[in-house]
Write a structure and sequence with these properties.
CATH topology: Oxidized Rhodanese, domain 1
Number of helices: 4
Strand content: 5-15%
Structural class: alpha/beta
Mean pLDDT: 91
Strand order of the largest sheet: 1-5-4-2-3
Shape: globular
Distance between the termini: 26 Å
Radius of gyration: 13 Å
CATH superfamily: Rhodanese-like domain
Helix content: 25-40%
Length: about 110
């Protein structure tokens, strides 16, 4: 059992600023409209981009495709001072729920 809260996608607003840690090609294929994209391996050098999320009253919701990468990133983000939560089921669950997707490839969005 994770020490971090799991947030069901149904509880995440369509326009929420979630942190998407998937790779660039996954992001380009389809992402939540207001998500912040920092691939997992880039987080250590781009952490300052998350500064606006430090003083929020609610946790920073983090997502990947299905949750595997998030489980490795949440403990590290917590050590950096962030209040974090996992978006349960990741972007696969987001897509399955029919939530909005944007792509940057000009092709239909996919997850």
């Amino acid at each position: 059992m994770s020490q971090f809260p799991d947030v069901p996608v149904t509880d995440v607003a369509d326009d929420a600023a979630v942190l998407d840690i998937r790779e660039q090609d996954e992001w380009d294929a389809g992402h939540a409209p207001n998500a912040v994209h920092i691939p997992m391996n880039d987080l250590p050098v781009r952490l300052d981009e998350l500064a606006p999320f430090l003083d929020r009253d609610e946790p920073l919701v983090v997502t990947c495709r299905s949750g595997g990468r998030v489980s490795r990133v949440l403990p590290w983000l917590e050590q950096q001072g962030y209040d974090v939560a996992n978006m349960e089921g990741g972007m696969r669950a987001w897509h399955a729920e029919g939530k909005p997707l944007e792509g940057t490839s000009g092709q239909p969005t996919i997850i």
